Amino acid sequence: GENVEQHPSTLSVQEGDSAVIKCTYSDSASNYFPWYKQELGKRPQLIIDIRSNVGEKKDQRIAVTLNKTAKHFSLHITETQPEDSAVYFCAASQASGGGADGLTFGKGTHLIIQP
Amino acid sequence: NAGVTQTPKFQVLKTGQSMTLQCAQDMNHNSMYWYRQDPGMGLRLIYYSASEGTTDKGEVPNGYNVSRLNKREFSLRLESAAPSQTSVYFCASSDLFQGGEQYFGPGTRLTVT
């Protein structure tokens, strides 16, 4: 089955700086890679996703890059703000037609924004 | 739209007791999922239902059963609860023809003593 590794487990950055979280996956058949943000006691919320036919995707201060050859993808947050403090999870799946398999998640990165 | 709803929000069980966690979605999604989240482990897939009438095991199915009651509802049953099943349980739904993104419910915090 799929295995997703996520690094670092904790990341502390100064407000206004950039943050980068990296994930690797093992199954070359995976073709859908979402990122979720989870605040304490809340449900995971999708913040951005990328499919394997695209190398990069941006949404305001958030971007995701995908390297299919190396089987890794990364989340980039620029101009970090206090409200970015949360746990971030990467995930992977084979979103094949006719039905959707579940997601395999990384273990999460606790992002701390220092004022 | 309420999105994905789960009941109950909290539950305490004694070892050996049984219970069913309920999940419903009002987004007309075909696929539904059950995950558990333990500290430091991320979310792990227990069971999923790609479409109404089908269910499949995920990464950690032992000790659980599921029922896809209809397109809207997907329940998770613990027949004989064990302390190792203490966790937060999340239900999610998605539909490939609506973009494929998975949307999560608010979670059920279960403690087994």
Summarize the structure.
The complex is a heterodimer of chains A (115) and B (113). Chain A is 0% helix and 53% strand.
Structure overview:
The complex is a heterodimer of chains A (115) and B (113). Chain A is built from no helices and eleven strands. Chain A is mainly beta and 115 residues long. In chain A, strands 2, 4, 5, 9, 10 and 11 form a six-stranded mixed β-sheet that branches. In chain A, strands 1-3-8-7-6 form a five-stranded antiparallel β-sheet, with no helix packed on it. Chain A is globular. The N and C termini of chain A lie far apart (41 Å). The mean pLDDT of chain A is 93. In chain B, 0% of the residues lie in helices and 51% in strands. The chains are: A mainly beta (115), B mainly beta (113). The interface between A and B is medium-sized, with 24 and 28 residues.
Please summarize the sheet with the most strands of chain A: 6 strands, mixed
Number of strands of chain A: 11
The global form of chain A is globular
Helix percentage of chain A: under 10%
Largest interface (CB within 8 Å) is between: A-B, 24 and 28 residues
Which percent band covers the strand fraction of chain B? over 45%
SSE pattern of chain A, N- to C-terminal: EEEEEEEEEEE
Which spans of chain A have pLDDT < 50 for at least 5 consecutive residues? none
Helix and strand content put the structural class of chain A at mainly beta
Content-based structural category of chain B: mainly beta
Distance between the termini of chain B: 36 Å
Dominant shape of chain B: globular
Query: What percentage of the residues of chain A does DSSP assign to strands (E)?
Result: over 45%
Radius of gyration of chain A: 14 Å
Distance between the termini of chain A: 41 Å
Q: How many helices of chain A?
A: 0
Indicate the radius of gyration of chain B in whole angstroms: 13 Å
Any low-confidence stretches of chain B, pLDDT <50, length ≥5? none
The protein's oligomeric status is heterodimer
